[in-house]
Design goal:
By secondary structure, this protein is of the alpha/beta class. The chain contains 15 helices and 13 strands. The chain is globular and about 65 Å long.
């Protein structure tokens, strides 16, 4: 949908002003893409760069503005080709007016507009590939392909990086694997006061003495809520609370189906949907086990990483990014997707843990996340990609080295 020619190379920022990055995504409502956008924006400002975000808006805009970023409201959630084409001009105008150096696209529909606008204005273009998007037909694969066309393509897990290389033939030289991170200052059990936990327990009407199984995530079929209901039914226990923590985001059909299935299986007193939660660290402290039952691979699966940071035993389906965040037998369990009996067996094992076993799992899980999956690491590695794009290391010289100086192959390239 673009007719603009690629510039031969985009310029570095003018001397004397900080570099500026524009992140582009559909909206700032909820989810891992949105949370990562906010975190990178804050890291840019903290590093002395300028941060701008373009989206259709949403409740997380105030977080961008609170830490000193700038938000530009555009209809980027639209998949209408006419709107997408008009968004090219809107984005190009914003890029020029704001002095943007790097355009970072985080979602497919706005990426088409962002790529064209970056080309039109001669700016660098970076993408983040957030999942192994379905590519069952040629049109779908073409639509996805824009996310593989950045000067650097950030993959949020090794799983996604392998998908990029296999399906879209992206060379390793352009892929940067940067696994998602957990805000360890926020997801820290030592910082969660009892009053926060008690307030949620009362709000959700949880009874003392009943174990809590929690599945955080949007109410949508592929997140596997129906599989968890079936697994809980197989346990045959009434002394449980099974909480589905997440919004249906205005799509009430699946929520009604889920609630009907809960009633059909006689679990109305056990399973409940508790809507979205603004205090997930406190919510996770209520859980005896945290579940991700996604029946399609997650690109990363931040919820399971956050739960381990809070010292919770976890159960996840055995595919996608979960294979990189869960240590089976040490921090939790991996079970086949769409397999309620296997999920029920793992739930039974988690609920049967002794206090000493729970403590050991908590310590291993927290150490694992702190060592490998912090937000600080994710932000530092992303800013390193931006720096690499703006200030590429010089190529080795081909001429004969001057006596007394290092030969080109001996020189240490700049970061």
């Amino acid at each position: 949908m673009t007719t603009d020619a690629d510039p031969s190379i985009a310029a570095a920022p003018a001397e004397g002003r900080p570099p500026a990055v524009l992140q582009v995504l559909p909206a700032l409502v909820s989810g891992g893409v949105e949370r990562g956008t906010v975190e990178i924006s804050a890291a840019l400002v903290a590093a002395g760069w300028r941060s701008c975000v373009a989206s259709a808006g949403g409740k997380m805009v105030h977080e961008i503005e609170r830490h000193g970023g700038q938000h530009v409201t555009l209809p980027l959630a639209s998949k209408n080709p006419l709107v997408m084409r008009r968004n090219v001009g809107r984005l190009a105008a914003a890029i020029s007016a704001l002095g943007i150096d790097i355009v970072h696209a985080r979602s497919r529909a706005p990426a088409w507009s962002a790529r064209a606008a970056a080309r039109r204005t001669g700016r660098h273009f970076v993408t983040t590939f957030h999942n192994a998007y379905s590519h069952g037909n040629r049109l779908r694969r073409w639509y996805n392909s824009v996310m593989a066309e950045g000067e650097r393509v950030i993959a949020i897990s090794q799983f996604v990086a392998a998908h990029l290389a296999e399906v879209y033939n992206v060379p390793a030289a352009r892929i940067r694997t940067i696994q998602r991170g957990v805000d360890l200052a926020r997801f820290d059990p030592a910082r969660i006061g009892a009053e926060r936990i008690i307030r949620l327990a009362r709000q959700w009407r949880l009874e003392d003495g009943r174990a809590v199984i929690m599945l955080p995530g949007r109410l949508t079929r592929w997140k596997g809520q129906l599989d968890l209901v079936a697994a809980v039914a197989l346990l045959g226990r009434a002394d449980l609370h099974c909480l589905f923590v997440g919004s249906d985001e205005g799509r009430g059909g699946f929520r009604r189906e889920l609630e009907a299935e809960i009633v059909r299986r006689g679990l109305a007193g056990v399973c409940q949907c508790v809507e979205d939660c603004n205090d997930m660290p406190a919510a996770l402290m209520l859980a005896d086990v945290v579940v991700s039952a996604s029946n399609r691979p997650e690109g990363f699966g931040r919820v399971i990483a956050e739960a381990q940071a809070m010292g919770r035993p976890v159960i996840a389906t055995d595919h996608g990014g979960a294979r990189e965040t869960v240590l089976p037998g040490e921090t939790g369990w991996l079970v086949p997707p769409a397999d309620p009996p296997a999920l029920a067996a793992a739930l039974a094992a988690a609920l049967a843990l002794t206090p000493a076993e729970r403590l050991a799992i908590a310590e291993r899980g927290m150490a694992h996340i702190h060592a490998h999956f912090s937000t600080a690491r994710m932000c530092a590695e992303t800013l390193a990609v931006y720096h690499e794009v703006l200030f590429p290391a010089p190529r080795p010289r081909a001429e004969t080295p001057v006596p007394g100086l290092l030969a080109p192959e001996q020189e240490t390239p700049r970061a």
